[in-house]
Amino acid sequence: MKHGRYWALAAASVLVVSFGSAQVTGALWRDEEVIGGGTITSGTLDIKLGPEGAAEVADFVIPGLGNDALTPNGFAQAPLLIRNNGTTPFVFRLQSTTVNGPLPFVLTASTVADVEACPATGAPTGASVLYTGNAAGAQIPTAPAARPLAPGSNEVWCVRLTTSDQPPQSATSKVMFSFRADQA
């Protein structure tokens, strides 16, 4: 008889433990939200760089920004047209800049009224400076900030790369700009 009570107590303990475990892991979550009617509109997000009507390419070369004969403290300067070719407003920034090669550059990026305001030589006309600093790793504006651009509009940047007062001789460097656009 003693053994029967032990078996009954052991079986009851197993049932309590099993039932207790099932209750602990059996949580159920539910939430709901009622919202009023509205309209959902789709659109396209399309950032373009370079002259209007230019074919879309993955690696756009900024015409005029290269220079085969940079002297100490010399510079190359060219306009870059950034436009919203989509149907929805977006915000954008120069996400990163990479310099491949030994030439150290100072990057100056300014907004100007049009491409003619950014001549190959001399100072840009009516420029508003966005950034001046080391070209490698530049981000304009610094994240999380971004510049807004409405559908069908554009912004012209005057991009200048300046060498140091003692650049390496017979050296070549390539500067790559990566842009990011997000729906506003």
Layout of helices and strands, plus pairs?
Blueprint: H1 2-25, E1 47-49, E2 75-84, E3 90-100, E4 105-112, E5 128-134, E6 147-149, E7 154-163, E8 174-183
Antiparallel strand pairs: 1-2, 2-7, 3-6, 3-8, 4-5, 4-7
Tags for this model:
184 residues; mainly beta
Descriptive account of the structure:
By secondary structure, this protein is mainly β. Helix content is 13%, strand content 34%. It has a five-stranded antiparallel beta sheet with strand order 1-2-7-4-5, with no helix packed on it. Strands 6-3-8 form a three-stranded antiparallel beta sheet, with no helix packed on it. About 6% of the residues have low confidence.
Sequence of strands across the biggest β-sheet: 1-2-7-4-5
From the helix content, strand content and strand pairing, which structural class follows? mainly beta
Instruction: Kindly report how far apart the N and C termini lie.
Output: 79 Å
Hey, roughly how much beta strand do the residues contain? 25-35%
Rg on CA atoms, Å: 31 Å
Total count of helical runs of at least 4 residues: 1
